[in-house]
Design brief:
Number of helices: 9
Number of strands: 13
Structural class: alpha/beta
Order of helices and strands: EHEEHEHEHEEHEEEHEEHEHH
Distance between the termini: 42 Å
Largest sheet: 7 strands, parallel
Strand content: 15-25%
Helix content: 25-40%
Shape: globular
Length: 294
């Protein structure tokens, strides 16, 4: 059934892929963005999206003017990788989506799909601020009217991902045959999932949200298989036919390093979802596109 969907973070990697998929399924897409945001990732579909600038936005008027929005999909985030202050991270990851959740709830929006992290809430400011929104979402769903779906997203990757992401950095380094790539020992394991599989999970949950018995639901989204960082890097290196020297052990583990992260996808699988891309198939897609840009 056709729905009117409001998406945050639409100019980013995940949000842009979601917007394209939502439009392809026949939904109406509206998007919140900053005035300074580049539309490069959504250039091909920009004419099909109704954009609103966040700066000076009246959230209540937004929902009155766009009656009736069926669902909000929140993907915008601030990782704190660019030396943002505590207040900046809080504003982006807690205050902004909370205002959206509050206004949407008052306007009768049915569903709020939130993009969350698998990281422990005390690991860093990013994880803490995301957890604070989660608690508000749980409160709203239990005491108000809106259905809140929390998506705990593992390490997703794909073509045109941000350069600040580890996967992108490794792929570009190997393709460019930099002399040496300094790495940790690489024993820590991560659950890598290709972007198209992530998007298919969001679309499925958007479709199923009205049928859950609880107004608050939480799902892990990943491949369901943990791969060591060393295995991931070595796979990239092999597929890229790279001459880069991989120096495992040159760097220490980060403070508080998570040594094992793996999604429990049993609940998603029970809904009929499955991962279409294994690590090699996904990486080949990324490497092929990156090669075309070199």
């Amino acid at each position: 059934m056709k729905k009117k969907i409001l998406v945050t973070g639409v100019t980013g990697f995940l949000g842009s892929h979601l917007a394209k998929a939502l439009l392809a399924e026949g939904h109406d897409v509206m998007a919140l963005k900053r005035k300074s945001s580049s539309l490069r990732r959504v250039e091909s579909i920009a004419s099909d999206i109704v954009f609103f600038d966040i700066e000076g936005l009246d959230y209540d008027n937004l929902f009155r003017d766009c009656w009736k929005i069926d669902a909000i999909i929140h993907t915008a985030t601030c990782y704190g990788r660019n030396n943002e202050s505590v207040s900046d991270i809080f504003a982006a990851n807690t205050e902004f989506p909370l205002r959206l959740l509050d206004a949407g709830n008052r306007a009768g929006v049915d569903v709020f799909l939130n993009t969350d992290t698998v990281l422990d809430k005390y690991l860093n400011l990013y994880a803490l601020s995301k957890n604070q929104l989660l608690q508000w979402g749980r409160f709203f769903s239990m005491h108000e009217k809106i259905r809140f779906g929390n998506i705990r997203l593992e390490h997703f990757y794909g073509p045109d991902d941000d350069d600040t992401k580890f996967s992108t950095y490794v792929i570009k380094s190997c393709l460019n045959n930099i002399p040496e790539l300094k790495l940790t020992p690489g024993v820590q394991k991560r659950d890598f999932i290709y972007i198209d599989d992530v998007v298919s999970a969001y679309l499925l949950l958007l479709e199923k949200m009205d049928g859950f018995s609880s107004p608050f639901v939480e799902f892990d989204v990943g491949s369901g298989h943990a791969l060591s960082i060393r295995e991931f890097v070595e796979t990239v290196h092999r597929l890229a036919m790279s001459k880069t020297h991989l120096d495992f052990g040159a760097l220490p583990y980060r403070e508080g390093e998570v040594m094992h992260s793996e999604a429990d996808i049993s609940d998603l699988v029970a809904l009929g979802w499955h991962c279409r891309y294994d690590i090699e198939t996904g990486l080949k897609q990324v490497i092929e596109q990156e090669r075309g840009l070199l």
